[in-house]
Amino acid sequence: MERNITLTALFAALIAVLGLIPKLTLMSGIPITAQSLGIMLCGTVLGARRGALAVLLFLLLVALGLPLLAGGRGGLGVFAGPTVGFLVGWVVGAYVIGLLTSGLTSLPVGVAAGIAAVIGGIVVLYIPGIIGMMIMLDMSVQKAFLSILPFIPGDLLKAVLAGAITATLARARPGVVASRPAG
User: Fold this and answer.
1) How confident is the model at residue 60 (pLDDT cuts 50, 70, 90)?
2) Could you point out which of 31, 69, 117, 160 has its C-alpha 20 to 30 Å from the C-alpha of 153?
3) Residue 179 falls inside a structural domain
4) Among candidates 20, 165, 151, which has minimal Cα distance to 97?
5) Helix (H, G, I), strand (E, B), or coil: what is residue 81?
6) Residue 180, in any domain of the structure
7) Between 7 and 1, whose confidence is greater?
């Protein structure tokens, strides 16, 4: 129990630290940040349930006003902006990434984590992200979809990094990757 709480808090802190990397905001109002790498790692390392809990803890701290999002943003106002769909999608994405990483046992852990990060951290995450943009920015589906295209190359790179980091952790500390059975 204590280990679960510690890991959940540690990964919430990791998401916050990745927000210190300067953001680049596109014309859509959606920033490119390193924080989505943290979301991917929550799922690949902690697994579905703990990964989603780490993201929820992070979002609770943001809602309480801590400036933990890229660019020092925080407070309830961020949940009324164009990024709201992505913030909600982070929880779902981390959960799906954890499920897929644990389910793809026939693949090496790094490959499974990379595939899971692409599916959960890009495909699944973008669905609520696009919906949020459509609602908050009064965009059509086509315009919202086109506005997320510039994010895909960077997110693919983050998915590869998540797979590599997860594989390295699994080799260095067998059993530390909770999304996969030890051995």
Assistant:
1) very high
2) 69
3) no
4) 165
5) coil
6) no
7) 7
Residue range(s) defining the domain that contains residue 46? 2-172
pLDDT tens profile 155-171: 999 999 999 999 999 99
Q: Is the pLDDT of residue 183 over 60?
A: no
How far apart, in whole angstroms, are the C-alpha atoms of residue 163 and residue 157? 10
The confidence score (pLDDT) of residue 37 equals 97
Residue 71, domain member (yes or no): yes
Tokens standing for residue 81: 């902006």
Q: What is the CATH number of the domain that holds 86?
A: 1.10.1760.20
φ, ψ of residue 32 to 5 degrees: the values are: -85, 120
Helices (H), the chain: 2-18, 35-41, 48-63, 84-103, 109-118, 125-136, 141-148, 152-172
Give me the amino acid identity at 81. Answer: G
